[in-house]
Amino acid sequence: MAIYDVSMEIHDNMMVYKNKKEKQPKRKITHKYLKNGVNESKISLGLHTGTHIDAHLHMSENGDTIENVKLSKLISKVRVLDFTHLNDGITAEDLMKKDIEKENFILFKTRNSFEDTFNRKFIYLEKSGAEYLKDKSLAGVGTDSLGIERSQPGHPTHKILMENGIIIIEGLRLKDIKEGEYMMYALPLKIRGGDGAPARVVLEDL
């Protein structure tokens, strides 16, 4: 079976949200082989760097944290939905055309996957789309942008999804993935108290 790594590579000059320099990962070599006989380094990065999973705490004062996310939700069948024709937000009307079933886990493939630099007008999930997915009792949603919403005061998309137990994965790379069903393995770092965590996300042909 074919296996597809749909994660972003983490490096010093990678794409970050709104191109903010303070969000760039910083890697420092602490031991060099020629001097110490080993190679070791350390890295400083935000919990929402690259491909990552949001915890409820990200948008709630007392929300649950990343180490408590159920892995049974993150090792599951998923449907990749192709929205590469859209130029703005994904709405309820757009989603209605995709025959989404109750408790699905869906991933959005958009033009975002074809861009290697941050676009402030990235494709996002509009509030009406989040409401539609809430009514479908969705298990989770993944997007190929570094944020699932933009230009929505109060972050309604995040809050609608999170308050209804819907997992959010951001920063996927779906350029080479066709619309269809896959098995997904999405494992966030087990960071105690984390409001999110970077993840390695892999899809496998069914």
Describe this structure in words.
- This protein is an alpha/beta fold and 206 residues long.
- It has one domain: 3-Layer(bba) Sandwich (Glucose Oxidase, domain 1), CATH 3.50.30.50.
- It is built from five helices and ten strands; from the N terminus they run E-E-H-E-E-H-E-H-E-H-E-H-E-E-E.
- The chain has a seven-stranded mixed beta barrel. Strands 2-3 form a two-stranded antiparallel ribbon.
- Helix 3 links the parallel strand 5 (75-82) and strand 6.
- Helix 4 (127-135) packs parallel to helix 5.
- The longest helix is centred in the middle third of the chain and has 9 residues, at 127-135.
- The radius of gyration is 17 Å and the shape is globular.
| Strand coverage percent | 25-35%
Outline: globular
Q: Summarize the main sheet.
A: 7 strands, mixed, barrel
The CATH C-level class name: Alpha Beta
Number of helices: 5
Average residue-wise pLDDT = 96
Q: Radius of gyration from the CA trace?
A: 17 Å
Structural class: alpha/beta
Got a strand count? 10
Question: N-to-C terminal Cα separation, in Å?
Answer: 8 Å
- Roughly how much helix do the residues carry, as a percent range? 10-25%
